[in-house]
Design goal:
40% helix; 632 residues; Beta-galactosidase, Chain A, domain 5; 15 helices; alpha+beta
Length: 632
């Protein structure tokens, strides 16, 4: 290599070095680029977390990603591989399985209850509220350097284990860790859940005051009727002010709750999973519920995301309680016994008893009577029979007055027919005269067509209250009577496996025997009563079909509902028929007619109702006369 070539290479190298030196980024540009890279990584992690949290349906939790190409000692402590361990906490009421992967519950079995959704002829297993693939629990921790740690993705260490308690720890740095402690209460469905840590200020931001929590659970189908199980399934939440609210379950619902909340419940028809914040309140919550397809083995998919008070202080600890158990009214009410009113949980609202007057009837009358009868009687069929007799006796004074009014109308029927014969025309003026004379007859005799409606009006709140009670009371679940194997669901006497257009969506694929008997008895009773009543069908011919249409409509409504409910209405109608014939043969109609004739002789002041009716008739006659003159 000659001298000129060597000088040229040196100059070229110097030029390249100089260009690299002068074109390098400044310290500010390097910092800004690193900040943009961290922001992009943060957005990607948040999007991944949100997608993972809101994914419907849930996917099974996977093991931590492989790190074979990276030495374990080069990974953060919370990323290092550990073997998953499964821990079981058991008592007589619940078997709860926990995993160190995510330090979360992965299975809850209630051995005292059986799964009613199994196919006919198959052995029914115990109720499983959720399996590993059905539940998701996560605390997304944000470190001071904007790293995201999802507790659902990392392995905790098993630190302590007893028959009722387990402590799992997530090492974060050499001196800091996060602890999840679960404690199963004796002879209970509740599990204490404590979150605490040590030296969290080494990894969490110093100004951190709240922590997000994500919880999701698919509700498996546990009853025969997917339709009616889903109808009573929802997300419930409780405001500290005492109000319990829930989401609609028609298809898919989302809701943001800005107010503070004491607990959230993923509620099935007869069972619930509840997360209660004992230390503070949940705030800034997002909820979502989705209907699962029929035949999928699930009824609803529930998801919530909220925040609770938590920070890196050394003494920071948050106490929660999980409830995995039945919607048993007495059990849920017992959790508020001896508790100050401001601290009561009102979990009994997970049992739907109706609103306003209907809930009052169920809470203060039906449930106490049922509780009393249960102490002495083991058959729910007999309990429902005695409950029906009790309600009928309670209303019997009003029922008697109603039947007495019907008897008055019946003995006056010949005189009403005489009035109809004197006014055979169908024109408006003739009909008004006929109506006026008929009402004058009733008024002078002391009879009222409206009095017969009183027993029906008084019975309606009880009928509606029991319509709310029977399908939601877990006490009927698994209880058999006569041919009904389970009074909490339908009792098929005829079943088919194929779909009938329109019919299958209303009836299902069966006909329930108690529902069928209820419908037949109602039709027979209504037909008999129509024949016994005054001939009002002449004035309103279409009304004579109304009772039959109502009976058929109720058949379609109740065919897939609880057989205990149909059984109640069936025997209630039978008792009503017996009451009718009892009063019919104990009331002396000849003596009653004589009394009514005597009433005609007495001066009788017109009631306000009759005065308004006569005034309305007078105005109608005037209008009819004016229209007639106008036509001339």
């Amino acid at each position: 290599m000659d001298r000129n070539t060597l000088i040229g290479l040196v100059l070229i190298g110097a030029i390249l070095l100089g260009f690299s030196w002068f074109s390098r980024p400044s310290a500010e540009e390097i910092a800004r680029a690193e900040q943009e890279a961290r922001a992009a990584q943060l957005a990607q992690e948040e999007a991944s977390s949100a997608e993972r949290a809101t994914a419907l349906p849930l996917q099974p939790a996977e093991a931590s990603p492989s790190t074979d190409s990276i030495a374990q000692d080069q990974l953060p402590l919370y990323r290092q591989r550990r073997d998953e361990q499964i821990i079981e906490l058991k008592n007589d009421r619940i078997h709860l399985s926990l995993s160190t992967h995510g330090a979360r519950p992965i299975e809850a079995i209630l051995p005292a209850y059986l799964n009613n959704a199994t196919a006919e002829g198959e052995e029914r297993p115990p109720v499983r509220l959720f399996s590993r693939e059905d539940i998701f629990l996560n605390l997304p921790l944000r470190t001071f350097d904007n790293q995201l740690i999802n507790t659902s993705e990392v392995q905790f260490e098993l630190m302590e284990q007893t028959d009722s308690t387990v402590l799992m720890r997530l090492p974060l740095t050499e001196s800091s860790h996060l602890d999840f402690r679960y404690t199963l209460l004796p002879d209970d469905y509740r599990v204490r859940f404590q979150i605490s840590g040590a030296h969290l200020d080494k990894i969490l931001p110093a100004n951190m005051s709240v922590q997000d929590i994500e919880w999701q659970q698919r509700l498996p189908q546990l009853e025969q009727s997917w339709k009616f199980e889903g109808q009573y399934s929802s997300i419930y939440y409780y405001y500290p002010t005492g109000e319990v609210d829930d989401l609609s379950t028609s298809s898919q619902s989302q809701e943001s709750v800005k107010e503070s909340v004491k607990w959230f419940a993923f509620k099935d028809k007869y069972f619930s999973s509840v997360l209660i914040n004992n230390s503070s309140r949940f705030t800034d919550s997002s909820l979502e519920i989705k209907v699962e397809p029929e035949g999928s083995g699930y009824v609803r998919n529930c998801w919530m995301r909220s925040t609770f008070a938590f920070g890196p202080r050394a003494t920071q600890q948050q106490d929660f309680t999980f409830f995995f158990g039945p919607n048993d009214y007495d059990l849920l009410r017992s959790y508020d016994e001896g508790v100050e009113e401001s601290e009561r949980l009102q979990l009994d609202h997970l049992v739907y008893l109706g609103i306003n007057i209907f809930r009052v009837i169920n809470r203060w009358l039906i449930i106490p009577v049922v509780t009393f009868l249960q102490q002495y009687i083991g058959s729910w069929g007999i309990i429902i029979l005695l409950l029906t007799i009790f309600i009928k006796l309670l209303l019997s004074p009003f029922t008697y007055k109603g039947y007495l009014s019907q008897a008055k109308m019946r003995v006056l029927r010949p005189q009403v027919e005489e009035i109809n014969a004197r006014y055979p025309g169908k024109d408006q003026e003739t009909m008004l005269k006929k109506q006026r004379e008929t009402m004058a007859l009733y008024s002078s005799a002391g009879a009222s067509p409206m009095s017969g409606c009183l027993p029906m009006l008084l019975q309606m709140p009880f009928l509606i209250a029991l319509y709310m009670y029977f399908p939601t009371s877990i006490l009927l679940r698994g209880e058999s009577f006569l041919w009904a194997e389970d009074l909490s669901t339908y009792d098929p006497v005829i079943s088919w496996s194929f779909d009938i257009p329109l019919v299958s969506s209303l009836l299902g694929n069966h006909i329930s025997l108690f529902c069928l008997l209820m419908t037949i008895v109602n039709i027979v009773y209504n037909r008999y009563m129509m024949n016994q009543s005054a001939s009002s069908s002449e004035a309103m011919p279409g009304m004579k079909w109304m009772p039959y249409m109502m009976s058929i409509m109720f058949f379609f409504m109740f065919n897939q509902n609880a057989s205990g409910l149909s059984y109640y209405y069936f025997i209630s109608t039978l008792i009503t028929i017996l009451q009718y014939f009892f009063f019919r043969f104990t009331i002396n109609e000849q003596k009653l007619l004589s009394q009514l004739e005597e009433n005609k002789k007495k001066p009788r002041k017109k009631s306000k109702f009759m005065q308004r009716l006569e005034e309305a008739q007078r105005l109608q006659q005037q209008q009819a006369a004016q229209r007639a003159r106008g036509k001339r």
